[in-house]
Specification:
single chain, alpha/beta, FAD/NAD(P)-binding domain, D-Amino Acid Oxidase, Chain A, domain 2, 2 domains, 6-stranded mixed β-sheet, 11 helices, about 25% strand, globular, binds flavin-adenine dinucleotide, oxidoreductase activity, FAD/NAD-bd_sf
Protein backbone atom coordinates (compact mmCIF):
# COMPACT_ATOMS: atom_id res chain seq x y z
CA UNK A 1 0.00 0.00 0.00
CA UNK A 2 1.33 3.45 -0.96
CA UNK A 3 1.18 6.06 1.78
CA UNK A 4 0.25 9.01 -0.48
CA UNK A 5 -3.31 10.29 -0.66
CA UNK A 6 -4.18 11.50 -4.17
CA UNK A 7 -7.17 13.60 -5.20
CA UNK A 8 -8.62 13.36 -8.69
CA UNK A 9 -10.72 16.37 -9.67
CA UNK A 10 -13.40 15.28 -12.13
CA UNK A 11 -15.44 12.07 -12.26
CA UNK A 12 -15.78 11.80 -16.03
CA UNK A 13 -14.53 8.76 -17.87
CA UNK A 14 -10.96 10.13 -17.74
CA UNK A 15 -10.99 10.95 -14.00
CA UNK A 16 -12.63 7.66 -13.06
CA UNK A 17 -10.18 5.65 -15.17
CA UNK A 18 -7.31 7.50 -13.51
CA UNK A 19 -8.76 6.92 -10.05
CA UNK A 20 -9.03 3.19 -10.75
CA UNK A 21 -5.45 2.94 -12.05
CA UNK A 22 -4.09 4.75 -9.00
CA UNK A 23 -6.20 2.69 -6.63
CA UNK A 24 -4.93 -0.48 -8.30
CA UNK A 25 -1.38 0.78 -7.79
CA UNK A 26 -2.09 0.96 -4.04
CA UNK A 27 -2.76 4.67 -3.47
CA UNK A 28 -5.47 6.10 -1.28
CA UNK A 29 -7.64 8.02 -3.78
CA UNK A 30 -10.42 10.58 -3.44
CA UNK A 31 -12.40 11.78 -6.46
CA UNK A 32 -14.07 15.19 -6.25
CA UNK A 33 -16.75 16.28 -8.69
CA UNK A 34 -19.41 18.93 -8.49
CA UNK A 35 -21.83 16.56 -10.24
CA UNK A 36 -22.58 12.85 -9.99
CA UNK A 37 -20.04 10.60 -11.79
CA UNK A 38 -20.24 10.53 -15.59
CA UNK A 39 -22.57 13.51 -16.04
CA UNK A 40 -20.18 15.73 -18.07
CA UNK A 41 -19.14 15.12 -21.68
CA UNK A 42 -18.76 11.46 -20.73
CA UNK A 43 -22.55 11.21 -20.46
CA UNK A 44 -23.31 12.07 -24.03
CA UNK A 45 -20.77 10.54 -26.37
CA UNK A 46 -21.44 8.29 -29.36
CA UNK A 47 -20.07 5.31 -27.43
CA UNK A 48 -17.25 4.33 -29.79
CA UNK A 49 -13.90 2.96 -28.71
CA UNK A 50 -12.57 4.43 -31.91
CA UNK A 51 -9.45 2.34 -32.55
CA UNK A 52 -9.19 3.78 -36.07
CA UNK A 53 -8.87 7.43 -34.97
CA UNK A 54 -5.19 8.20 -35.38
CA UNK A 55 -5.19 11.35 -37.53
CA UNK A 56 -5.18 14.89 -36.12
CA UNK A 57 -7.92 17.19 -37.46
CA UNK A 58 -5.55 20.07 -38.18
CA UNK A 59 -4.53 20.10 -41.84
CA UNK A 60 -4.36 23.01 -44.25
CA UNK A 61 -6.98 21.31 -46.45
CA UNK A 62 -9.36 21.23 -43.48
CA UNK A 63 -8.56 24.83 -42.54
CA UNK A 64 -9.44 26.00 -46.08
CA UNK A 65 -12.83 24.26 -45.86
CA UNK A 66 -13.74 25.81 -42.51
CA UNK A 67 -15.00 29.29 -43.59
CA UNK A 68 -17.45 27.71 -46.06
CA UNK A 69 -18.61 25.21 -43.46
CA UNK A 70 -19.16 27.95 -40.89
CA UNK A 71 -21.34 29.87 -43.36
CA UNK A 72 -23.42 26.80 -44.24
CA UNK A 73 -26.02 26.40 -41.50
CA UNK A 74 -26.51 22.72 -42.34
CA UNK A 75 -22.81 21.81 -42.05
CA UNK A 76 -21.57 19.99 -38.94
CA UNK A 77 -19.40 22.97 -37.98
CA UNK A 78 -20.72 26.10 -36.28
CA UNK A 79 -19.57 28.84 -33.95
CA UNK A 80 -21.23 31.11 -31.42
CA UNK A 81 -20.17 34.68 -32.33
CA UNK A 82 -19.49 35.70 -28.74
CA UNK A 83 -17.13 32.71 -28.35
CA UNK A 84 -14.72 34.06 -30.99
CA UNK A 85 -12.30 35.79 -28.56
CA UNK A 86 -11.90 32.54 -26.57
CA UNK A 87 -11.11 30.75 -29.83
CA UNK A 88 -8.13 32.93 -30.78
CA UNK A 89 -5.35 30.95 -29.02
CA UNK A 90 -6.93 27.73 -30.27
CA UNK A 91 -7.08 29.07 -33.84
CA UNK A 92 -3.41 30.03 -33.75
CA UNK A 93 -2.51 26.62 -32.34
CA UNK A 94 -4.64 24.93 -35.04
CA UNK A 95 -2.83 26.89 -37.74
CA UNK A 96 0.58 25.82 -36.38
CA UNK A 97 -0.58 22.20 -36.08
CA UNK A 98 -1.46 22.19 -39.82
CA UNK A 99 2.18 22.25 -40.90
CA UNK A 100 3.11 18.84 -42.35
CA UNK A 101 5.88 18.15 -39.81
CA UNK A 102 3.47 18.79 -36.91
CA UNK A 103 0.78 16.69 -38.56
CA UNK A 104 3.20 13.77 -38.89
CA UNK A 105 4.24 14.12 -35.23
CA UNK A 106 0.59 14.25 -34.17
CA UNK A 107 -0.19 11.10 -36.16
CA UNK A 108 2.70 9.26 -34.52
CA UNK A 109 1.59 10.36 -31.05
CA UNK A 110 -2.01 9.22 -31.60
CA UNK A 111 -0.83 5.90 -33.04
CA UNK A 112 1.39 5.34 -30.00
CA UNK A 113 -1.58 5.92 -27.67
CA UNK A 114 -3.83 3.68 -29.76
CA UNK A 115 -1.32 0.84 -29.63
CA UNK A 116 -1.75 0.64 -25.84
CA UNK A 117 -5.39 1.64 -25.63
CA UNK A 118 -7.17 -1.63 -26.34
CA UNK A 119 -5.27 -3.55 -23.67
CA UNK A 120 -5.71 -0.73 -21.16
CA UNK A 121 -9.46 -0.62 -21.54
CA UNK A 122 -9.87 -4.38 -21.66
CA UNK A 123 -8.01 -4.47 -18.32
CA UNK A 124 -10.26 -1.76 -16.89
CA UNK A 125 -13.44 -3.44 -18.13
CA UNK A 126 -12.33 -6.76 -16.62
CA UNK A 127 -11.36 -5.09 -13.32
CA UNK A 128 -14.71 -3.32 -12.99
CA UNK A 129 -16.93 -6.11 -14.36
CA UNK A 130 -18.23 -3.80 -17.09
CA UNK A 131 -17.45 -5.91 -20.18
CA UNK A 132 -21.16 -6.65 -20.65
CA UNK A 133 -21.67 -2.98 -21.57
CA UNK A 134 -19.39 -3.34 -24.59
CA UNK A 135 -20.24 -4.76 -28.02
CA UNK A 136 -17.70 -5.90 -30.59
CA UNK A 137 -19.65 -5.55 -33.81
CA UNK A 138 -17.31 -3.14 -35.60
CA UNK A 139 -18.46 0.18 -36.97
CA UNK A 140 -19.41 1.60 -40.37
CA UNK A 141 -18.49 4.96 -41.92
CA UNK A 142 -20.53 5.67 -45.05
CA UNK A 143 -20.28 8.15 -47.92
CA UNK A 144 -23.15 9.63 -49.92
CA UNK A 145 -21.34 9.46 -53.27
CA UNK A 146 -18.85 7.26 -55.12
CA UNK A 147 -16.65 10.32 -55.58
CA UNK A 148 -16.58 11.12 -51.88
CA UNK A 149 -15.75 7.49 -51.05
CA UNK A 150 -13.01 7.38 -53.70
CA UNK A 151 -11.46 10.60 -52.40
CA UNK A 152 -11.41 9.22 -48.85
CA UNK A 153 -9.81 6.01 -50.09
CA UNK A 154 -6.95 8.07 -51.47
CA UNK A 155 -6.81 10.28 -48.36
CA UNK A 156 -7.64 9.55 -44.71
CA UNK A 157 -8.51 5.89 -45.27
CA UNK A 158 -5.21 5.27 -47.06
CA UNK A 159 -3.34 6.94 -44.22
CA UNK A 160 -5.17 4.83 -41.65
CA UNK A 161 -4.42 1.63 -43.52
CA UNK A 162 -0.75 2.63 -43.62
CA UNK A 163 -0.95 3.13 -39.84
CA UNK A 164 -2.03 -0.49 -39.45
CA UNK A 165 -5.75 0.10 -38.83
CA UNK A 166 -7.84 -2.95 -39.72
CA UNK A 167 -10.41 -1.67 -42.24
CA UNK A 168 -12.41 -2.97 -45.18
CA UNK A 169 -14.02 -1.10 -48.07
CA UNK A 170 -17.62 -2.15 -48.64
CA UNK A 171 -19.94 -1.40 -51.55
CA UNK A 172 -23.57 -0.43 -50.99
CA UNK A 173 -24.79 -4.03 -51.20
CA UNK A 174 -22.24 -5.26 -48.68
CA UNK A 175 -23.35 -2.49 -46.29
CA UNK A 176 -26.98 -3.53 -46.81
CA UNK A 177 -26.07 -7.12 -45.92
CA UNK A 178 -24.62 -5.87 -42.61
CA UNK A 179 -27.35 -3.32 -41.82
CA UNK A 180 -30.53 -4.24 -43.77
CA UNK A 181 -32.68 -1.54 -42.10
CA UNK A 182 -30.46 1.29 -43.25
CA UNK A 183 -31.75 3.32 -46.22
CA UNK A 184 -29.82 3.41 -49.49
CA UNK A 185 -28.52 6.96 -49.02
CA UNK A 186 -24.90 5.93 -49.48
CA UNK A 187 -22.45 4.59 -52.01
CA UNK A 188 -20.78 2.25 -49.53
CA UNK A 189 -18.07 3.02 -47.09
CA UNK A 190 -15.53 1.72 -44.64
CA UNK A 191 -15.99 -1.05 -42.08
CA UNK A 192 -13.75 -1.16 -39.00
CA UNK A 193 -14.18 -4.71 -37.66
CA UNK A 194 -12.16 -4.12 -34.47
CA UNK A 195 -14.10 -1.08 -33.24
CA UNK A 196 -16.14 -1.69 -30.10
CA UNK A 197 -18.88 0.43 -28.60
CA UNK A 198 -20.70 0.78 -25.33
CA UNK A 199 -24.44 0.52 -25.06
CA UNK A 200 -24.42 3.01 -22.16
CA UNK A 201 -21.67 5.55 -21.52
CA UNK A 202 -23.39 6.59 -18.28
CA UNK A 203 -23.67 3.06 -16.94
CA UNK A 204 -20.01 2.55 -17.79
CA UNK A 205 -19.03 5.53 -15.63
CA UNK A 206 -21.32 4.28 -12.87
CA UNK A 207 -19.71 0.83 -12.94
CA UNK A 208 -16.27 2.43 -12.72
CA UNK A 209 -17.43 4.59 -9.81
CA UNK A 210 -19.04 1.63 -8.06
CA UNK A 211 -15.92 -0.51 -8.29
CA UNK A 212 -13.82 2.39 -7.05
CA UNK A 213 -15.95 3.03 -3.95
CA UNK A 214 -16.46 -0.69 -3.27
CA UNK A 215 -12.67 -0.94 -2.97
CA UNK A 216 -12.26 1.91 -0.54
CA UNK A 217 -12.18 4.91 -2.88
CA UNK A 218 -14.02 8.06 -1.84
CA UNK A 219 -16.18 10.14 -4.16
CA UNK A 220 -16.98 13.60 -2.77
CA UNK A 221 -19.51 15.89 -4.42
CA UNK A 222 -18.09 19.41 -4.27
CA UNK A 223 -16.71 22.09 -6.54
CA UNK A 224 -12.96 22.72 -6.56
CA UNK A 225 -12.50 26.47 -6.68
CA UNK A 226 -8.70 26.57 -6.62
CA UNK A 227 -5.68 24.27 -6.73
CA UNK A 228 -2.77 25.46 -4.57
CA UNK A 229 0.46 23.45 -4.82
CA UNK A 230 2.95 23.71 -1.95
CA UNK A 231 6.28 22.00 -1.22
CA UNK A 232 4.90 18.92 0.49
CA UNK A 233 1.44 18.59 -1.06
CA UNK A 234 -1.45 20.36 -2.74
CA UNK A 235 -4.31 22.26 -1.11
CA UNK A 236 -7.71 22.32 -2.75
CA UNK A 237 -10.15 25.08 -2.00
CA UNK A 238 -13.66 23.66 -2.09
CA UNK A 239 -16.98 25.48 -1.80
CA UNK A 240 -16.98 25.52 2.04
CA UNK A 241 -13.49 24.56 3.19
CA UNK A 242 -9.98 23.54 2.07
CA UNK A 243 -8.43 20.05 2.03
CA UNK A 244 -4.83 18.87 1.55
CA UNK A 245 -3.54 15.97 -0.49
CA UNK A 246 -0.09 14.63 -1.32
CA UNK A 247 -0.85 14.92 -5.02
CA UNK A 248 -3.67 16.06 -7.27
CA UNK A 249 -4.74 15.04 -10.77
CA UNK A 250 -6.86 17.50 -12.74
CA UNK A 251 -9.33 15.66 -15.02
CA UNK A 252 -11.99 18.34 -15.32
CA UNK A 253 -12.57 18.16 -19.08
CA UNK A 254 -13.36 21.52 -20.59
CA UNK A 255 -13.13 23.25 -17.17
CA UNK A 256 -9.43 22.36 -16.86
CA UNK A 257 -8.29 25.55 -18.58
CA UNK A 258 -9.80 27.76 -15.88
CA UNK A 259 -8.40 25.65 -13.01
CA UNK A 260 -4.91 25.71 -14.50
CA UNK A 261 -4.68 29.40 -15.41
CA UNK A 262 -3.97 30.59 -11.81
CA UNK A 263 -1.09 28.07 -11.71
CA UNK A 264 0.54 29.84 -14.64
CA UNK A 265 -0.32 26.98 -17.02
CA UNK A 266 -1.95 28.26 -20.20
CA UNK A 267 -3.62 25.76 -22.52
CA UNK A 268 -5.59 26.71 -25.65
CA UNK A 269 -8.43 24.36 -24.67
CA UNK A 270 -11.87 25.06 -26.16
CA UNK A 271 -15.41 23.90 -25.75
CA UNK A 272 -16.31 22.02 -28.93
CA UNK A 273 -19.87 21.13 -28.27
CA UNK A 274 -21.53 18.01 -29.54
CA UNK A 275 -25.20 17.05 -29.53
CA UNK A 276 -27.05 13.83 -29.23
CA UNK A 277 -30.67 12.88 -29.75
CA UNK A 278 -32.00 9.63 -28.36
CA UNK A 279 -34.29 8.16 -31.00
CA UNK A 280 -36.95 5.51 -31.04
CA UNK A 281 -36.57 3.93 -34.48
CA UNK A 282 -39.56 1.59 -34.09
CA UNK A 283 -39.18 -1.82 -35.72
CA UNK A 284 -35.92 -0.95 -37.44
CA UNK A 285 -32.70 -2.30 -36.02
CA UNK A 286 -29.03 -1.41 -36.14
CA UNK A 287 -26.32 -3.78 -34.96
CA UNK A 288 -23.42 -1.34 -34.73
CA UNK A 289 -22.58 2.39 -34.90
CA UNK A 290 -23.13 3.79 -38.39
CA UNK A 291 -21.60 7.11 -39.36
CA UNK A 292 -22.64 9.26 -42.30
CA UNK A 293 -19.22 10.76 -42.73
CA UNK A 294 -20.19 13.58 -45.13
CA UNK A 295 -22.53 14.91 -42.44
CA UNK A 296 -20.40 13.88 -39.43
CA UNK A 297 -23.26 12.14 -37.61
CA UNK A 298 -23.34 8.69 -36.03
CA UNK A 299 -26.24 6.43 -35.12
CA UNK A 300 -25.28 4.11 -32.27
CA UNK A 301 -27.66 1.44 -30.97
CA UNK A 302 -27.72 1.93 -27.20
CA UNK A 303 -29.65 0.47 -24.29
CA UNK A 304 -32.20 3.31 -24.19
CA UNK A 305 -32.65 3.85 -27.94
CA UNK A 306 -30.55 4.80 -30.93
CA UNK A 307 -28.20 7.66 -30.15
CA UNK A 308 -27.78 10.17 -32.98
CA UNK A 309 -24.57 12.03 -32.14
CA UNK A 310 -22.50 14.65 -33.88
CA UNK A 311 -21.88 18.33 -34.58
CA UNK A 312 -18.88 20.51 -33.73
CA UNK A 313 -20.23 23.75 -32.27
CA UNK A 314 -17.60 26.10 -30.88
CA UNK A 315 -19.57 27.79 -28.12
CA UNK A 316 -19.25 28.42 -24.42
CA UNK A 317 -19.94 25.37 -22.31
CA UNK A 318 -22.99 26.95 -20.67
CA UNK A 319 -24.64 28.34 -23.83
CA UNK A 320 -28.21 27.09 -24.36
CA UNK A 321 -28.82 24.17 -26.68
CA UNK A 322 -29.33 25.41 -30.24
CA UNK A 323 -32.47 23.66 -31.57
CA UNK A 324 -31.35 24.27 -35.15
CA UNK A 325 -28.32 22.00 -34.67
CA UNK A 326 -30.55 19.23 -33.34
CA UNK A 327 -33.02 19.68 -36.21
CA UNK A 328 -30.26 19.45 -38.81
CA UNK A 329 -29.00 16.23 -37.24
CA UNK A 330 -32.52 14.82 -37.21
CA UNK A 331 -32.87 15.56 -40.94
CA UNK A 332 -29.74 13.49 -41.56
CA UNK A 333 -31.11 10.63 -39.46
CA UNK A 334 -34.36 10.67 -41.44
CA UNK A 335 -32.38 10.18 -44.64
CA UNK A 336 -30.26 7.42 -43.09
CA UNK A 337 -33.33 5.53 -41.91
CA UNK A 338 -35.81 6.63 -44.58
CA UNK A 339 -38.19 7.24 -41.72
CA UNK A 340 -39.08 9.86 -39.10
CA UNK A 341 -37.95 8.54 -35.75
CA UNK A 342 -39.44 9.71 -32.47
CA UNK A 343 -37.14 11.90 -30.35
CA UNK A 344 -36.93 10.69 -26.75
CA UNK A 345 -34.39 13.26 -25.51
CA UNK A 346 -31.89 15.86 -26.68
CA UNK A 347 -28.54 16.67 -25.06
CA UNK A 348 -25.60 18.99 -25.61
CA UNK A 349 -22.18 18.86 -23.98
CA UNK A 350 -18.63 20.11 -24.43
CA UNK A 351 -15.77 18.12 -25.85
CA UNK A 352 -12.56 19.40 -24.27
CA UNK A 353 -10.61 20.06 -27.48
CA UNK A 354 -6.99 21.02 -28.14
CA UNK A 355 -5.77 22.54 -31.42
CA UNK A 356 -3.44 19.62 -32.23
CA UNK A 357 -6.04 16.92 -31.39
CA UNK A 358 -3.74 15.49 -28.69
CA UNK A 359 -4.82 15.18 -25.06
CA UNK A 360 -2.81 16.71 -22.25
CA UNK A 361 -1.45 13.97 -19.98
CA UNK A 362 1.13 13.83 -17.20
CA UNK A 363 2.73 15.87 -14.42
CA UNK A 364 3.06 19.64 -14.75
CA UNK A 365 6.65 20.80 -15.15
CA UNK A 366 6.17 23.76 -12.79
CA UNK A 367 4.17 21.81 -10.19
CA UNK A 368 5.29 18.17 -10.13
CA UNK A 369 2.70 17.24 -7.47
CA UNK A 370 -0.05 18.20 -9.91
CA UNK A 371 -0.76 15.93 -12.88
CA UNK A 372 -3.34 16.43 -15.60
CA UNK A 373 -5.51 14.30 -17.87
CA UNK A 374 -7.81 16.32 -20.11
CA UNK A 375 -8.21 17.65 -23.65
CA UNK A 376 -9.30 14.38 -25.26
CA UNK A 377 -11.65 16.11 -27.70
CA UNK A 378 -13.50 13.52 -29.76
CA UNK A 379 -11.68 10.60 -28.12
CA UNK A 380 -12.11 10.73 -24.35
CA UNK A 381 -13.98 7.44 -24.11
CA UNK A 382 -11.40 5.78 -26.36
CA UNK A 383 -8.39 7.13 -24.47
CA UNK A 384 -9.77 7.20 -20.90
CA UNK A 385 -8.20 3.94 -19.74
CA UNK A 386 -4.78 4.51 -21.28
CA UNK A 387 -4.70 8.04 -19.85
CA UNK A 388 -5.34 6.66 -16.36
CA UNK A 389 -2.66 4.03 -16.80
CA UNK A 390 -0.06 6.57 -18.01
CA UNK A 391 -0.78 8.97 -15.16
CA UNK A 392 -0.47 6.14 -12.62
CA UNK A 393 2.81 5.00 -14.16
CA UNK A 394 4.27 8.51 -14.09
CA UNK A 395 3.17 9.10 -10.47
CA UNK A 396 4.80 5.82 -9.43
CA UNK A 397 8.06 6.98 -11.02
CA UNK A 398 7.92 4.34 -13.75
CA UNK A 399 8.76 5.06 -17.38
CA UNK A 400 5.30 5.51 -18.93
CA UNK A 401 4.33 2.90 -21.54
CA UNK A 402 3.89 5.74 -24.04
CA UNK A 403 6.28 8.69 -24.28
CA UNK A 404 4.40 11.60 -22.68
CA UNK A 405 6.42 14.37 -24.37
CA UNK A 406 3.88 15.05 -27.17
CA UNK A 407 1.09 15.22 -24.56
CA UNK A 408 2.76 17.60 -22.13
CA UNK A 409 1.03 20.86 -21.15
CA UNK A 410 4.38 22.56 -21.78
CA UNK A 411 4.02 22.07 -25.54
CA UNK A 412 1.72 25.12 -25.60
CA UNK A 413 4.11 27.50 -23.82
C1 LIG B 1 -21.60 14.27 -29.02
C2 LIG B 1 -20.30 13.66 -28.57
C3 LIG B 1 -19.90 12.43 -29.10
C4 LIG B 1 -18.70 11.86 -28.68
N1 LIG B 1 -18.38 10.60 -29.14
C5 LIG B 1 -17.25 9.99 -28.68
C6 LIG B 1 -16.97 8.66 -29.05
O1 LIG B 1 -17.74 7.99 -29.73
N2 LIG B 1 -15.81 8.10 -28.61
C7 LIG B 1 -14.93 8.78 -27.80
O2 LIG B 1 -13.88 8.26 -27.46
N3 LIG B 1 -15.22 10.06 -27.38
C8 LIG B 1 -16.35 10.67 -27.80
N4 LIG B 1 -16.66 11.93 -27.39
C9 LIG B 1 -15.71 12.64 -26.52
C10 LIG B 1 -15.78 12.19 -25.07
O3 LIG B 1 -17.12 12.10 -24.63
C11 LIG B 1 -15.00 13.21 -24.21
O4 LIG B 1 -13.71 13.39 -24.73
C12 LIG B 1 -14.87 12.66 -22.80
O5 LIG B 1 -16.12 12.39 -22.25
C13 LIG B 1 -14.13 13.65 -21.90
O6 LIG B 1 -14.09 13.06 -20.62
P1 LIG B 1 -13.55 13.85 -19.38
O7 LIG B 1 -13.59 12.91 -18.24
O8 LIG B 1 -12.26 14.50 -19.75
O9 LIG B 1 -14.58 15.06 -19.19
P2 LIG B 1 -16.03 15.09 -18.56
O10 LIG B 1 -16.80 13.86 -18.82
O11 LIG B 1 -16.64 16.38 -19.02
O12 LIG B 1 -15.76 15.13 -17.00
C14 LIG B 1 -15.22 16.24 -16.36
C15 LIG B 1 -15.83 16.31 -14.98
O13 LIG B 1 -15.20 17.35 -14.24
C16 LIG B 1 -16.17 17.92 -13.40
N5 LIG B 1 -15.69 19.26 -13.00
C17 LIG B 1 -15.37 20.29 -13.83
N6 LIG B 1 -14.93 21.34 -13.11
C18 LIG B 1 -14.96 20.96 -11.82
C19 LIG B 1 -14.59 21.61 -10.61
N7 LIG B 1 -14.09 22.85 -10.61
N8 LIG B 1 -14.76 20.96 -9.44
C20 LIG B 1 -15.25 19.68 -9.43
N9 LIG B 1 -15.60 19.01 -10.55
C21 LIG B 1 -15.44 19.65 -11.73
C22 LIG B 1 -17.42 17.94 -14.23
O14 LIG B 1 -18.58 18.03 -13.41
C23 LIG B 1 -17.31 16.62 -14.99
O15 LIG B 1 -18.01 15.58 -14.36
C24 LIG B 1 -17.87 12.54 -27.77
C25 LIG B 1 -18.26 13.76 -27.23
C26 LIG B 1 -19.48 14.31 -27.61
C27 LIG B 1 -19.90 15.61 -26.99
Amino acid sequence: MQSSHIAIIGAGVVGLSTALSLQKAGYKVTVIDKEAPGMGASFGNAGLFADYARLPFAKFAMMCKMPGMLLDKTSPLSMQGSYLPSLMPYGWGFFKACFPAKYVQGKAALKALQEHTQQADRDLLALTGAADLIKSEGCLGLFATEDGFATAQQGDLKERREQGVNLQFLNAKQVRDLEPDLAGFHAGGVFYPDTRFTVSPLELSRRYAHHFTANGGIIAQDEVLAVKPKDDGVDLRLSQHSVSFDRVVICTGVASKALLAPLGVKVPLVSERGYHLTLDIGDKQLSRPVGWLDKAVFLTPMADGVRLAGTAEFASADAPLNPQRAETMLEHAKVMLDDTPEIKSTWVGSRPSTPDSLPVIGPLEQHPRVSVGFGHGHLGLTFGAITGQLIAESIQGQTPSVDLTPFSAARFS
